[in-house]
Fold this protein.
Amino acid sequence: MVPVVALLGLSTVANTFCVIPPPQRHHRQCLFASTESDAVYDDADDAGDASKLISIEDVLFLERFKRRRNAVVTELESERLKKPPSNATHFEDPKNVVTSILNGLLHPHTPAPLFGYEVLYQASTQHWQNVLRRSVGAPNNTEVELIYRALSTSMERKQNQFGILVGLGTDVSLTSTDNSNTNNAYDEEYYTIEFPWDTLDYYDGTAWLECRLRDKQSDSLLVVLGWSLERSSDGAWLIDGIDWQDFRERYRPGVGREEWERICG
């Protein structure tokens, strides 16, 4: 029979009682993620919720992720300062505003997804933002991120008349048989921007500007756009309307035309 003292972890050697120490628990160093600070604990049990325990490698990974994220955010903020809407000296000329918007739409997902659509929307007056929002069927108070996504989905669909703005929509009759110049969004700029006249400034905070899109190779006239512009309270030029006249064979004036309000319909 096992003595009771043995069950209790005691020994009777030499008529004395001595305490047999229990097996030592293995300690391991771990880190406890805290919103306030990162604390080091010698025992996992003292760290609290085990689901919040992360390894040193995880901590280093998260630190690298945070640095990368902050770098991307800083880069995007820097790019936004280089785009409309802006009251910078460069954008005092409406031609530079229009050129920047068109170039951004040709590469709408650079330097970040939907960036070109963000520039288009943010560089618009409240009136034109409402037109863009209605064109994709978005109700009032829709998050702008969802509007950007809807504009992207709609304008980048195949055979969209306004796809020319995002690197699609060239007239099939003007391209090679293997479609090497079609359906390759953002590959290269296939049209040139021409401003045939000076900006018509009404000196009341509004202006009008005509620009023409010409085929980069054949110099054929593709589209004529009339831009109605309005100054914001801080002096930046904003889009208040766009008139569209298509000269491509598929959309020649009076045949197969769409209104801007149906750009995504």
The chain has a mean pLDDT of 74. The first strand starts at residue 10 and ends at 11. DSSP finds six helices and ten strands in the chain. The radius of gyration is 32 Å.
